[in-house]
């Protein structure tokens, strides 16, 4: 079966995000170009994705505020993520934005970008030059590259093609990516990053606290879909999530489960999204939030004071 079931998780996550956007949880006018088919999801799922998106975007904004226009963003396992277009619409200037995924996934993304003018128009640089291949796009400060992040040599070649500057402050993002990768490959990746990049921050969204009945059900569902959870050992708790960074040359790490993230969102914003769909039983939502976390790892001291607070970007 190989990597196909893992690639399919991109389609599922993208459909969930589009469904939540349609209901009004957050605004994203670009997701519609990547996802056409949407099935109704349970309110707990929609709120879970809302917290995930809100949490990651909060730390993205904090990073850019600190690093400024020289910042780079590398999104590993980016799938059909639309962050680049949203930042562009907000007028946020960064030096470079690179999306990395399996070539078969980036091939689909490249096709959809070419096909949809609103996506294509936003990636042009001043000269309007776009370099395209079957799996890659290079356009101004936007790059979508097909690479297997388990293969460091291939990844490094591709990052050079995407004009990545290893001396710039760099934000690394991974959403439910590392859990599907063998531990030694993750360790090599994190160790390579810490030795190669001068300064940076890693945002990792992933499972945690999986050693209970609820975790067993979650893992059972994923395994039934053929997903090999090769990196599940680090999802034991938030401490194990942090240890991955601390053991591979990173200066420090912090982690919060999604209960903490959700209840740090300003109350008026939480009330707004809680009015969208009636939730009969909050216990399931809390259980879901307890089994996911956001972990930060940093390479340099300027990012060590980051905490989660949606209201102080």
UniProtKB/TrEMBL annotation:
Keywords: Methyltransferase, S-adenosyl-L-methionine, Transferase
Positions contributing to S-adenosyl-L-methionine binding: 52, 77, 148-149, 175
Pfam families: LCM
Catalytically driven reaction(s): [phosphatase 2A protein]-C-terminal L-leucine + S-adenosyl-L-methionine = [phosphatase 2A protein]-C-terminal L-leucine methyl ester + S-adenosyl-L-homocysteine
Sequence similarity: Belongs to the methyltransferase superfamily. LCMT family.
PANTHER family named among the record's database cross-references: LEUCINE CARBOXYL METHYLTRANSFERASE (PTHR13600), LEUCINE CARBOXYL METHYLTRANSFERASE 1 (PTHR13600:SF33)
Protein name: Leucine carboxyl methyltransferase 1
Species the sequence originates in: Acanthoscelides obtectus
């Amino acid at each position: 079966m190989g990597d196909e079931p893992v690639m399919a998780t991109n389609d599922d996550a993208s459909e969930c995000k589009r469904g939540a956007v349609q209901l009004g949880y957050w605004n994203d006018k670009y997701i519609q170009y990547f996802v056409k088919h949407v099935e109704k999801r349970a309110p707990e799922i929609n709120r879970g994705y809302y917290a995930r998106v809100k949490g990651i975007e909060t730390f993205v904004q904090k990073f850019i505020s600190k690093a400024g226009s020289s910042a780079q963003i590398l999104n590993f396992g980016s799938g059909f993520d639309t962050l680049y277009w949203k930042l562009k619409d907000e007028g946020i200037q960064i030096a470079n934005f690179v999306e990395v995924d399996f070539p078969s996934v980036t091939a689909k993304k490249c096709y959809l970008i070419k096909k949809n003018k609103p996506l294509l128009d936003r990636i042009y640089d001043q000269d309007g030059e776009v370099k395209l291949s079957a799996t890659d796009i290079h356009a101004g400060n936007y790059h979508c590259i097909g690479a297997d992040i388990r293969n460091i040599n291939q990844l490094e070649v591709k990052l050079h093609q995407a004009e990545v500057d290893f001396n710039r402050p760099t934000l690394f993002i991974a959403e439910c990516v590392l859990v599907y990768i063998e531990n030694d490959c993750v360790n090599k990746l994190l160790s390579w990053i810490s030795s190669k990049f001068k300064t940076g921050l890693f945002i990792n969204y992933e499972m945690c606290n999986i050693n209970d009945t609820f975790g067993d059900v979650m893992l059972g569902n994923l395994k039934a879909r053929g997903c090999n959870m090769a990196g599940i050992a680090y999802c034991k708790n938030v401490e194990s999530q942090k240890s991955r960074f601390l053991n591979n040359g990173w200066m420090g790490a912090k982690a919060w489960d999604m209960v903490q993230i959700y209840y740090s969102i300003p109350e008026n914003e939480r009330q707004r999204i809680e009015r969208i769909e009636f939730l009969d039983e909050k216990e399931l939502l809390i259980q879901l939030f307890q089994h996911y976390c956001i972990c930060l790892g940093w390479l340099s001291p300027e990012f060590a004071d980051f905490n989660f607070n949606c209201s102080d970007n």
